[in-house]
Amino acid sequence: MAKYDWKKLLADYAAAYSATGISPVEWCAQNEVPYSSAKRYITIKAATDFIELNSQIRSSQKSDSQIRKEKGANRKSEKKRDDSGDNDMEESAGTDNSDTGDCPPETKPQRDASGRFAEGNKLGGNYGVPANAFQPGNQIPRKHSAYAKYLDADELFDAAKESDLRDELVFTRARALSVTKTLNKIMEDLHNAPDVETRIELYDKLLKAEAGLDRNIARIESIENSLSRLQLDAVNVPRLSADTLRIKAATAKLKAETEKLTAESKDVTTPLTDVVRDIHAMPDDGMLAQ
């Protein structure tokens, strides 16, 4: 039995399939390849995958060659600019030699003693730009980057940053009033309903609207409680901080007084001290004989 190079045969079939759309059976018959053996290797799917892979390889090769050409063109243009810049520098040096000799070019930003930029400084702190400049679409310095990557709407974040709980309270009350108006309209439609099915639908909407109104009222109560707790925290936090400082000061004072009294009474002898010393001097440490 003859051995076949199935990779080469697949490449030949892929070329023929790309040109004419021939089936594997017809192609095997034309090229005298047994289809019973080739059907494992030569299929339309394998041919399309082979064509796509080759197209990707060719496109990547083209892009690499294009990049190399662009880099070569950029090097040539930079070399021309450097040559022209050197010529300009030589001409300016010849015309104004005294100024360039007295004032060397600045390569670092001017800073004062505190490290801040000095007045008249023309160089930034990161003077490696544009070699390490931010790329387009950079999101690193954004405060809300954790959510901004899922919600691309800067105006929403700006509006949310300026709002607080009181704004949510007003908005929730407005929603409650809107639901109340909707309830009135549903009641009017319910009185004018022509048949039973319409009344059933309106009853369902009425129950849902009442449930939504109850949720809005509960939300209003929750926001009111939160605002009340915030007001209490505004008063209690400074008071608790002052109490903590006062307790720490009293503890430090008590500790200092204890250390002072201990140091002063270290060498003081009292009658009780003599009694304790005599008891310790006894052979049985003052214990009664059994």
What does this structure look like?
The protein has helices at residues 6-20, 24-30, 35-38, 44-95, 97-102, 145-148, 154-161, 165-191, 196-264, 271-281. It is mostly helical and 290 residues long. Among the domains are: 6-88, no CATH class; 164-264. Helix 1 (6-20) crosses helix 4 (44-95) and helix 8 packs antiparallel against helix 9 (196-264). It is extended and about 130 Å long. The model is unreliable at 97-101 (pLDDT under 50).
Brief summary:
This is DNA packaging. By secondary structure, the chain is an all-alpha fold.
What average pLDDT do the residues reach? Answer: 77
Helix content: over 70%
Portion in strands: under 5%
Radius of gyration: 45 Å
Number of strands: 0
Number of helices: 10
Indicate the structural class: mainly alpha
SSE pattern, N- to C-terminal: HHHHHHHHHH
Distance between the termini: 117 Å
Uncertain segments are 97-101
- What spatial form do the alpha-carbon principal axes imply? extended
Give a quick account of the main beta sheet: strands, pairing sense, barrel closure: none
Task: Please describe the structure with a list of short key phrases separated by commas or semicolons.
290 residues; extended; mainly alpha; single chain
List the helices and strands and how they pair.
Blueprint: H1 6-20, H2 24-30, H3 35-38, H4 44-95, H5 97-102, H6 145-148, H7 154-161, H8 165-191, H9 196-264, H10 271-281
